[in-house]
Amino acid sequence: MTQDRSSNQMWGGRFASGPDAIMEAINASIGFDKRLARQDIEGSRAHAAMLGATGILTDSDAEAIREGLLTVLSEIEGGTFEFSTALEDIHMNVENRLRELIGEAAGRLHTARSRNDQVAVDFRLWVRDQLDALDGALTALMRAYVAQAEAGADMVMPGFTHLQTAQPVTWGHHMLAYVEMFARDRSRVRDARARMNESPLGAAALAGTSFPIDRHMTAQALGFDRPAANSLDAVSDRDFALEFLSLASICATHLSRFAEELVIWSSAQFRFVALSDRFSTGSSIMPQKKNPDAAELVRAKVGRINGALISLLTVMKGLPLTYSKDMQEDKEQVFDAADSLMLALAAMEGMVRDMAPRADNLRAAAGSGFSTATDLADWLVRELGLPFREAHHVTGTLVKLAEDKNCDLPDLTLEEMRAVNQGINAGVFEVLGVDNSVASRASYGGTSPAGVRAQVARWKEDLA
Ligand code: ARG
Q: E strands, 171-310, where?
């Protein structure tokens, strides 16, 4: 090294002194971007192979670089690598170690490349791996819901609007509603993956390079569909991270909704489900307590994931082309959101697999609160030919009567009903039961057990 050791070895040529300690603290990203080590080395190995194949480097230099990088990777994965804050980031930490290992040839790796396209490729590869992991986790969660749906295809429970009893539905139908939600999340993952799968490598600092590189070769080696077509865009784009955070936020929102239902359903007031001991905790003072902590934490995780999305949107807003150091603030948000989401998905999968619906309580709740009032109104339309509005009015009168008597609709006598509308006959009692109610909702997408079974079959095929 001919350079002054106190200035940066990688870029210190024009610097007389090294950075202030505070400058180093605000500038360094190695504390978190070490998570990109594997992707960084993968990208560098592809770059070196291309430099060799195009004759920009000799084959022996290219090979020495590629081999040396494998050694660096094994040191990092083996935990023996010493990360240096003075070397700022993962890119320079890896390159510096490579120089120690193979000498001068290491300095040729950065030919026709910049840290700007390097970090863009590393981060894309990392996010792409996360999207694939997310795809798998969503599939596993969907399978857990489908298993619940199959077991409870004809288990009746109250369906709610405004958290007020609305109409009886089936447990299976409720479970499959979440399968639809997580299926949309999974399709957003796949859309985002397809859109982001372009290689920024070879955009160099921002303008491309005068070396005769082969960007198609590196794109292919790294599993990208094609090289990004505009070098300015390639180094300044973080849409892939924003899309990841957007779809993560929507997915976390879905998780929070079921988490909330679990908290409500497992309460002593509802007693709709029993959560397993594996995903609950006790109280240090109240011996009777079994708290749905995992559900509560899943419900809460959406806060930090939404926060990450807003944070990165705000960082990117108004940034002029192309790279600005602001963009170094992209990684911690994405790392934290990804970790939080994967943990929440795993916890939810466990809870869904383990939870036990309490069929008797669900059934009792399904029949209370005049939940079959719509069935009664429909019957008046179908059997007596009343206009729906009039049937609605008659039913309302009967609900009021039952409420005054403090009973449910099936408990009214035929005489009491006929006093409200003469045409009513004993056939009406058939539609006032919850089983008939759910069975009758056989319209496509409705809650009937037959419909649920058909959808379960469709999902099992999809998820096989
Ligand atoms: N650590 C930097 C980041 O995460 C790498 C890119 C640095 N580029 C530069 N021109 N200083 O964004």
A: 198-199, 226-227, 273-274
